[in-house]
Amino acid sequence: MIRGDSLSSRDRDHFDWPLFIAAVAIAVLGVVNLYSATSVYSGARAELYISQVYWLFVGGIIGGVLIALDYRHLERLGYVLYTFGVFSLALVFVLARDVRGSARWIEFGAFRFQPSEFMKVFLVIALAKFLHDDPRNEGRTLRDLAIPAALTAVPALLVLKQPDLGTATILVFVFLTIAAVTRVRWRSAALFVVSIAVAIPIIWEYVLLDYQRARVLVFLHPEEDLLHRGWHAHHSRVAIGNGGLFGNGYLRGTQNQFLFLPDQFSDFPFPVFAEEWGFVGGVVLVCLYAFLVVWGIRIASMAKDRFGAVLGVGCAAIIFWHAVINLGMTSGVLPVVGVGLPLFSYGGSSVTTVMVAISLLMSVSMRRYSGVASLDRL
């Protein structure tokens, strides 16, 4: 029987203020940066920062409900939520409108949402339920991870079909992160690495689309297509370099103000921030993300059950891989794959998803005191 339908006085006393403050700091910096990034536009795009505030408010309400409820209630809904997420991804191919060659959003009048964003959390909950129901504590083989891998492959392939390589990659990386802490036997881990190495040429030839392969080639040889496919990445690096140590000052970033930096409110908000606040500002932002991830792993390690431990690892992995991939592609160390920066990039579905992930971490954190650490028992 699960107790704790609402917050007890003990739970309220253990409110995770460090997690809350770090998330709020990133969100506030994100809105401030979004105002600067869209200040060069007029009309609706110039007011995206207002929409971002609304979505943060909506995400806060949903997060508050999740914090008040015991996270263990989600265990019973794990596969239901997963099925709903997969159904929504399939529905995209029927209802979604093509935008720049991709169909990712389902629209209902003025409201639209991106199912692939919410699928990240649904997948984590489903994987947490599976591993919680699996009683084994000894090292797992690849056969033992076949079902979790299949749970990941279905939504990942649907998302890749949209096409959305960035989100599909996030789903796979979240699964790999969770698998990495489940005590996989070293022989199975080595076999998995070999399998990945063999699969890479196949994925390159038969899975990736032409424009996706082109992005990788531009990353490897940026000087060959600087004025076309390499434009985004080039001016992103220029903006970061222009920031110097302390930056050019708020609303004074040349790459943004003169419209050299495309998608500066969605995929490339960090170069805007780095040019205005410099290396110091960039380090502060990176440290905030690092704190969220490390704190999330800490919460997972202190969870009182396996479901909470996997939930914590998965939610921290969502934030980690988003931040790593976005910062990597904007700084030129990774190919451009269209992954946003958590709570920093504009996007209602993205903001809500990250807020839900942080709220689940908060729920696990506030209810960990009646049990013992369980991450070592995964």
Automatic annotation (TrEMBL):
Keywords: Cell membrane, Cell shape, Cell wall biogenesis/degradation, Glycosyltransferase, Membrane, Peptidoglycan synthesis, Transferase, Transmembrane, Transmembrane helix. The chain crosses the membrane at residues 20-41, 53-71, 77-96, 141-159, 165-182, 189-209, 277-295, 307-324, 344-364. PANTHER family: CELL CYCLE PROTEIN, PEPTIDOGLYCAN GLYCOSYLTRANSFERASE MRDB. It comes from the Bacteria. This is Cell wall polymerase. One of its GO terms (biological process) is cell division. The keyword Nucleotide-binding does not apply. Its main location: membrane. It is found in: Membrane. The keyword Kinase does not apply. It is a multi-pass membrane protein. The gene is rodA. GO terms for cellular component: cell division site; plasma membrane. Pfam families: FTSW_RODA_SPOVE. One of its GO terms (molecular function) is lipid-linked peptidoglycan transporter activity.
